[in-house]
Amino acid sequence: MVYFIGAGPGDVDLITVKGRKIIEKADVVIYAGSLVSKEHMEFCKVGVELYNSAHMTLEEVLSVIEKAEKEGKVTVRLHTGDPSIYGAIKEQMDELYKKNIEFEVIPGVSSFTAAASAIKREFTLPGVSQTVILTRIEGRTPVPENEDIEKLAALGASMAIFLSVGMIDKVVEKLKRGYKRNVPVAVVERASWEDERIVMGTLEDIGDKVKKMGITKCAQILVGDFIDSSYSKSLLYDKNFTHMFREGKKK
Description:
By secondary structure, the chain is an alpha/beta fold. The protein has helices at residues 17-25, 58-70, 90-98, 111-118, 149-153, 168-179, 206-213; strands spanning 2-6, 28-31, 49-52, 75-79, 103-106, 132-136, 158-162, 184-189, 197-202, 219-223. Pfam families: TP_methylase (PF00590).
């Protein structure tokens, strides 16, 4: 049996209880060594086989999984954050389907939610934004033309931009053209790690601030009015609002 598990954004305790329990019984763990905290390995049982996938190709990863499966072992494929977001798991799962190897995906805490927690903000504020866009700028991995950051920014929704801080000037220029105004921006480097760093600003100054701090990778770029704006309170807790669990008070 193979388990794809989201290890969370960094903090070793930001993994699900289910994910931790499976790691404790795993015979083989293939982990994304460049991003996953090595503290997770402290919960593995004695004799576990550990593989750092940062040094492996897709074929090598699949070879380890296939060998473990033939030996009746439990394999964990440990990914950073949540494996369904920029996790490159589809190509692995497709091969397991072909080989009739059973697997399960265990979700995890994503870096974009960890970043929002770091700056103590809510993406979906009533009267401000009810939509969160997760995206990235094009680099060596292309982005579909209709998903260009400039076009997405034109919607005015809250945004969390992955894998793009190394091209901060390009990101800012596209966002300026899309939002067509100066909006708040937060850059969170290594969200939830002990060396986490936060930079707050706007589209006008965030580029200079990020470069001054030398942030070039492992950072979320959060953009939108949700970072700093007035908003409407939720109806859910309004004393005059009636729902299936509570009768609202008459005005």
